[in-house]
């Protein structure tokens, strides 16, 4: 048993994901209340180079051909062995397509408690999680001896999790990774040919509040008038009203435009993590309690269907057209 | 192929949410519950697999207001069996308790493939899918948007950030956490649901001795008090539009 805080380093095709650095920053807070060290846990094949700028006291590294790219089963088995042997105080995972695939399984396998959607740790060592689409916060203790936590961005800066110097690497041996039942066949690139929304300085984002496909004419006309680009939150893409290339958020693109005009978007954590580096967010939502107003600089509770035609008109007038 | 789809109900986020007198849970007295949207996609994906290659689809949900309607709705889409879990605390189960109850049931009916929503917005102890897979000794892949059946396995299209898809081959039996079906959940006319409700039976299954261990213990719940809150622009659509154009100009984007 130790007081160390483990962080699963997420990486995809040779790139460390931002959430890894955010979690290292969070782990530092937790380690100062537990009195342990921060250990970055890195799984891969010849992936030591990815450890170069991790702000950790040590890097625990497992090397295997089965760990070349992420697959849930190989990660689960490797982490189960490590956690069982070392019994850290806490293990942090991204609440992501990688972390969430393994954290829940490990909770069942090792009979360890799990807290999800944690955004912050308090100075006295409690978790603070977002729930109900960010409308409610939940706080609680982190039970001993070992707690598993999945984390969402928002509470810590990724720069705080980056170091100028590499930490010492301690290798550990993964378990036998034979006869695995999950195998990565290939990666498929996103459809090319559409605009790159991450390059546009003015994004007009539409969410569930747009109600139907025909109403997309409104943001499209505004985009044409102001030379902006239309993008969307998950429900709009899932309906097939806009292509996946326009998706902003956890499973889509992270964007940082000068203006992010959010039309009928509630501001669920999965969406907000894709937009929180925007210069200015302007939110239009009829629900005055929508979490989007917590990240927006300006907002209105008018219905977007009433506001957007007026806005397009005013933009045209201002441009003298 | 036998496909099972466990679904759950969650608070409708359109409604105002309040904390109860304990200060550590939602006030459920006026809470409107709706199907978890990811579970709705899991149902659609199961129906698509049935239409393409044949399957027997079972939908499972804990009892509660509106649950019968959702189960009949799934049957109208093509689900074969409907199961309702009966127990006073059924609707309040955390993911660990839900996964244990479901694992007991699935050990009996032995599905080849379990599809469930990748998460629900009120999960505080992880999602049901990954836990369920471990309790059943099955592999788990989450964040799946598209499933193709193969011989003894499925190909799951797993989503990564930036629109990248990882094609995962997963041996059956398996659990998949569905992010989105290949097409939006279909609409079914009320008349058809009504018709189905007269012919399809919902099987009731009693559950007891819930074991919630492994879940997060919440000491306090509260509404976020952000450091920054948007400046709300008041006025008519025309007035608000005027002010917004002013803001765009100040920021140099016009």
For the CA atoms, what is the radius of gyration of chain A? 22 Å
CATH fold type of chain B: Rossmann fold
Largest sheet of chain B: 9 strands, mixed
**How many helical elements of chain B?**
6
Helix content of chain B: 25-40%
H-E string of chain A = EEEHEEHEHEEEEEEEHEHEHEEH
CATH architecture of the largest domain in chain A: 3-Layer(aba) Sandwich
CATH class label of chain B: Alpha Beta
Would you count the extended β strands of chain A for me? 17
Largest interface: A-B, 102 and 88 residues
Helix and strand pattern of chain B: EEEHEHEHEHEEEEHEEEH
Describe the fold and architecture:
The complex is a heterodimer of chains A (321) and B (254). Chain A has helices at residues 18-34, 72-86, 99-110, 217-226, 234-238, 269-272, 304-318; strands spanning 5-8, 11-12, 15-16, 38-44, 58-63, 90-94, 114-121, 126-131, 136-141, 147-151, 169-171, 182-188, 202-206, 229-232, 259-263, 280-284, 298-300. Chain A is α/β, with parallel strands linked by helices. Chain A is elongated, with a radius of gyration of 22 Å. Chain B has a single domain (2-206), classed as 3-Layer(aba) Sandwich (Rossmann fold). Chain B is 30% helix and 27% strand. Chain B contains 6 helices and 13 strands. Chain B has helices at residues 37-53, 67-77, 95-109, 128-136, 190-199, 237-250, and strands at 2-7, 9-11, 33-35, 56-62, 81-86, 113-117, 140-149, 153-159, 165-171, 174-178, 202-206, 220-222, 231-232. Chain B has a 9-stranded mixed β-sheet with strand order 9-8-7-10-6-1-4-5-11. The N and C termini of chain B lie far apart (58 Å). In chain B, 48% of the residues are buried. Chains A and B meet through helix 3, strand 7, strand 8, strand 9 and strand 12 of A and helix 3, helix 4, strand 7, strand 8 and strand 9 of B.
């Amino acid at each position: 048993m130790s007081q160390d805080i483990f962080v699963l380093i997420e990486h995809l095709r040779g790139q460390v994901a931002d959430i890894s650095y955010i979690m290292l920053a969070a782990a530092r807070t937790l380690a100062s209340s537990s009195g342990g060290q921060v250990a970055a846990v890195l799984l891969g094949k010849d992936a030591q180079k990815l450890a170069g700028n991790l702000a950790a006291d040590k890097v625990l590294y497992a090397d295997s051909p089965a760990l070349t790219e992420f697959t849930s089963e190989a990660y689960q088995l490797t982490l189960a062995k490590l956690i069982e042997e070392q019994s850290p105080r806490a293990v942090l995972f991204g609440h992501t397509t990688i972390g969430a695939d393994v954290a829940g399984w490990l909770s069942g396998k090792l009979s360890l408690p799990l807290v999800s959607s944690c955004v912050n740790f308090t100075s006295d060592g409690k978790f603070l999680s977002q729930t109900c689409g960010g409308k409610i916060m939940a706080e609680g203790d982190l039970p001993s001896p070992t707690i598993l936590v999945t984390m969402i961005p928002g509470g810590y800066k990724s720069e705080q999790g980056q170091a100028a110097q590499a930490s010492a690497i301690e290798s550990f041996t993964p378990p036998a990774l034979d006869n695995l039942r999950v195998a990565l066949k290939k990666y498929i690139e996103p459809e090319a040919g559409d605009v790159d929304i991450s390059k546009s300085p003015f994004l007009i984002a539409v969410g569930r509040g747009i109600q139907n496909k025909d109403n997309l004419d409104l943001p499209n006309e505004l985009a044409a008038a102001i030379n902006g680009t239309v993008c969307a939150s998950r429900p709009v893409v899932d309906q097939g009203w806009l292509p996946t290339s326009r998706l902003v958020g956890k499973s889509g693109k992270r964007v940082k435009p000068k203006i992010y005009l959010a039309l009928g978007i509630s501001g669920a954590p999965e969406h907000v993590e894709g937009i929180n580096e925007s210069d200015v967010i302007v939110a239009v939502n009829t629900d005055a309690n929508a979490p989007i107003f917590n990240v927006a600089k300006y907002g209105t509770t008018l219905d977007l269907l009433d506001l957007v035609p007026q806005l397009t008109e005013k933009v045209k007038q201002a441009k003298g057209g | 192929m036998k496909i099972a789809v466990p679904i759950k109900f969650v608070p409708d986020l359109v409604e105002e949410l309040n904390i109860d007198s304990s200060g550590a849970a939602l006030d459920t007295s006026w809470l409107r519950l709706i199907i978890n949207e990811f579970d709705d996609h899991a149902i659609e994906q199961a129906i698509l697999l049935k239409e393409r290659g044949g399957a027997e689809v079972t939908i499972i949900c804990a009892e509660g207001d509106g649950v019968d309607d959702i189960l009949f709705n799934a049957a109208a889409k093509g689900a074969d069996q409907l199961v309702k879990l009966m127990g006073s605390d059924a609707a309040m189960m955390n993911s660990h308790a839900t996964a244990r109850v479901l694992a007991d049931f699935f050990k009996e009916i032995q599905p080849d493939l379990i599809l469930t929503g990748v998460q629900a917005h009120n999960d505080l102890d992880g999602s049901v899918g990954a836990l369920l897979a471990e309790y059943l000794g099955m592999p788990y892949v989450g964040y799946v948007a598209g499933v193709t059946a193969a011989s003894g396995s499925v190909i799951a299209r797993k989503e990564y950030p930036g629109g990248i898809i990882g094609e995962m081959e997963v041996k059956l039996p398996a659990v998949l956490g569905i992010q989105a079906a290949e097409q939006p959940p279909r609409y079914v006319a009320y008349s058809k649901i009504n018709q189905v409700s007269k012919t399809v039976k919902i099987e009731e299954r009693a559950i007891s001795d819930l074991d919630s261990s492994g879940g997060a213990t919440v000491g306090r719940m509260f509404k976020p008090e952000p450091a920054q809150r948007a400046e709300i622009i008041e006025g008519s659509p025309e007035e608000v539009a005027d002010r917004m154009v002013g803001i765009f100009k100040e920021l140099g984007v016009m």
